[in-house]
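[Automated response] Your request has been received and processed.

Submitted sequence:
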Amino acid sequence: MVELQKNDSWAVMLCGGLGSRMGSLTSKTPKSLLKVSGKPIIWYSFWTLYKYGFRNFILPLGFLGNMIREYIQQIACDIECNIYMVDTGIETSIANRIKKIKNIIPEKTDFLLLNTDTLFDFDIPTMHKVHITNNSLVTLSSVDVISPWGILTVLGENVINFDRNRKVQKLISKHDVKGYGVVNSGIAWINKNALSLINFEQDIDFETELFGSAIKEKRISHYKLDGIWFPIDTPKDLNSINYAFDVEEKPKDILLSALSTINSANHKNQNDMRI
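Generated structure:
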């Protein structure tokens, strides 16, 4: 398995939203702590990232943030990593959450930005190689389904348009070359320098502002996600993925992989303690 540089890999895990589309399920439980096959959604996110070598985690907390704080402290208390949990407010925009945590990220550092309401497992290190090879400020991952997170129009590994609308749109480039519409998965590599393109003092949509600015700079790429990706946005989604865990093999892979990572991490820590 390919890993990133363990000490240098940063992830920003968005987990402060109200989760209002989940209805009563999130009245007393933050969305990222809702369970899939007996484990909170954020459990899968954390251990998948840990498996790929991430050791620096930033969690902008919001709604019921203390519950998330306590849970993360519980699962990560015996492993080697740095976790920064910052209270960023309850009804705070993504832009303002990023504004409140951006100074934690070292200068010129690439970080992975993701939501913690999605089960995923794909080749994140190779996505990072695409990011570096293209000298991109932003590299988005894409999937071939309709989604509320925004539509990317891509040409090769270049992103040439970003649209909040759910409908896939085709775009003609300046050279009359047709691009094609794919869906933003909500997982992106971002270089901290890209944040300087944003005016955080204005009321902005973070993704529209950032992606649009990177497109103008011609320093945005995309990576076709080939692996596991299950966004959980509604109670129906949660029921569907729990059903899938019961009857299908593919979702179980992410559970087994996470458990293997935990066992490896615990074994390493036990060896370190003996030394």
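Summary generated for your ticket: The first strand starts at residue 10 and ends at 14. The chain has a mean pLDDT of 84.
If you did not submit this request, please reply to this message.
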